[in-house]
Amino acid sequence: MKKNIHGNITIRISDDEMTAFLDYVPSDVLFEWSDEKILELLDRAGVKRGFKQFQFSRIFDLIEKKQEQESYIIARGVEPVSGKLSKLNIAILTMTQSLEPVYNHLINNSEKPIVYPLQDDYKLGVESEQLSYDVLNHYYVNKDDIIFTIDPEGKPKNGYSVKGNIVKPSRDDDENFCFANSFEIDLENKIIKAEQSGFIRIGKNWIDFIPFKGHNMFVEPSEDFAEYYLTFNPSDDAPVPHFNDIINLFAEIDYPFELFKSEDIILSNLKKAIIEKKKIKFSLTKNKKSVARIEINKTNTKATLILVKGAGPGQRLSLKYIGALIRDSKIKGMNLEAVKKRILRFYKSSELSLEYVIVEGRTATRGEPRRLKFQKEFVSVDKIEGIINRITDDIETFYPSFKEFSKDSISSAILVNKGFEFALLTDPVPGDDGTDIYGNKIKGLVGNDPIIKTYENIIIKQNKYISKIDGILDLGEDGDVTLLRVREHKDMFVDISVSNDAMTASFTFHKEDGSGEQASIEFINKQIEAAGVVKGIDHKIIEESFEKFTNGELISEVVFATGRVPTDKKSSRIKFFNNNTGASKFSYEIEKGQKIAQIFPSKEKAEDGYDVLGTVMESSGVISLDLKIGDYILEEKQADDSIILSSDINGELKVDDKTITIVDMKVLSSDVSIKTGSIKTLCSLVVKGNVMSSLYVVSGGNVKILGTVQGALVSADKNIIIAQGVKGEEKAVLRAKEKIDVKFIEKGNMMAVDDIHIRKASLHTKIISNGRILFDKNGSKIIGGEAFSKHGLTVDEIGSPSGSKTFISFGQDYLVADKIKVFEKDVENIQEDLMKLDQVLQGGNSRLSQDKIAHLRKQKVFLMKKLEKKNMKLFLLREKFEEHAKSEIIIRNKIYPGVVFESHGRKLEIVDEQPMCRITFNPNTGQIEKSFN
Asked: In the sheet that 19-34 helps form, which strands lie side by side, from edge to edge?
């Protein structure tokens, strides 16, 4: 429950720690108070036990009307019970506010207590005892009220303070208990009760009695606990009860305070009874309409029973009516016994409302969509970029489909032969059948057919797709439409032959066709490499053969590689590429793939042999350098038998007389501050301190910071871990090409290609993740800022009670969104350049030479083609951005007003506080949906 109250609330604990008070001080400032905030105040004050949460709302209602300071008991400890007193269990007693003046008047004229010790046989002694007059508690009791129950087997009991500390009974308390003569000791029923109405005073080990007849009043619930009645028997001498006296009757009863009738109505009934000297019984509860209905969802697969208990004449829930409601619904499949038990349990409990699913059917599902099952594996567009680039503009003459299915739309391709059945449309598959709540069958839905558009050289027979020619199959997508086309294609072919002993290799060249790979040195070398010929290659012969082939000459069975026979022993030497000083010990940072050194075989001694396939034919032995080569160093043997050493990671290279090693991590034992300056390294980095504002930490590997990060930049080619969180000062930026893990972040920006893990909270921060954003349990929250997550996020709370604006976007590729911004800027720049060219061509032709005009027109044509390509790429990116990624937002506790969820341009704004729920985007309806667990 929440309340807006003009005033502040604090918690105070008594010196003996047995009582906790809620102190209220009014002010002009309006504060929002809730049960959660009171629990937080109690926790801060150390109050662990002795309070009841349902009483908080009653205190709110009382202080809401107060204009002066007030204190309320909010928690009580339990006093310990000594050995002898453990056999007497005191009942729950009260003291009404209206009788306090009467009690104070009576005790001014009363004498010291005259009490008698309780003997072992539970009878009063005959001799009175003079005891300490200190009164610990006082209560009002009616005649025959039970004061104590007798437990002969009772044992000493520890008490506890409001802080939860154990309070043991004192040995000094283990004395006999004394009673006045105004109590009846009923040994048969093991009770001690008052013989008449009046006030009882309780001391350390005694209890006496002051006669007085006050009003007799008590409360009792209706049969279904929806309504409470007050029975009031007035007395001639007692004052009118206070409203708080009525409230105190509910000290141990969890009943909503807002359901009570007004104070004026209740007290007017009591005053009337006092004037008329008449015992009355009336309802304390406002009239409230009862509800009993069955809600059925749109698909008739779930029925929920809604019950709300009513109060007032004719508003009692009728079990008979509920039974008839269920019977008349004609719903099948219910567990009637379980439903009946739940309704009875609700009716006889203090629950005031119930939402109970009485039966659930089974929703019919849609079968898997039909799909094209291809008989060969496709090659992605990035691997056939050369083939795409070789398609010229005049291809539309032979293939008109390029007007619709352009080369920019080709996403992948496969080589096919004439008559090859390259794809099969799978058979339709129905989904699982469902059942509604009336027992009717819901037929499973057949999977959707794909939308396929075919162009040149494709035959469709039944569900089979067949190529008419030898060539290449282009595959593309236009939204949900699959595009297919077969066109002529044959690469320039290099037929390579290796001799039986693998000591020679020769090749024969064949010409390309269509968009096939044309002859080039690079292509020929790739074919040679693919054939496994790696040694003894004469590149001059390759170049001469290529030139003859391009001039139309026949190249057939030309030897281009020869092996070498092994000789005797040899030794080797090393040359470092980045050691200009000639020092034997040195170090420097190195990038992955960077060359370190070259090991040369000695020319004075023999070498291993090899064949053209790279098989080594060992000599009688090889004497290597006396040098230990560490991890992360690659060794690549060259054609001249030398060995190139290169780095397999980003790191720090260290060289001495005996070893070559690469260290992949640096450790900084201090803060990154003005003293150290900013840090940029290729290695992974561990910072044992903090990172101060206006500095940066950039790493080619992982970054782990054991302290905090202020308004600084932290960038890593891999992961970022920040143990103590980020206080961003609206300047902090975190960027990782993999994952980010932080304890908390405040007023910063962070982006990761993979998941982002935040353990506690994100405050007024912009977050971009192309994976998921994950928060730990037990109080995690997002307050303010923006979060963009491709696969969604999981958190305890989003927003704040004050309504902080918080924006959550999910279900789309936000890295693609960044690319779209870049392309939009490129398109804008090209359009500006075209506008400037048009202004020159239209306004200044008389001043320009014909050559200059021709040049400007060519430049315009170039820019227009470039703009067309950019717009096409921008269109494809926007289409890709609209694709829905599997995602969900999971809120484990609550969402506050002010939170906005967005996906695919649709928004869902939270205007009321919501409990834990799940937020998803439904691509079928195009709407953001919310479901409660």
From this structure: 2-13, 19-34, 70-76
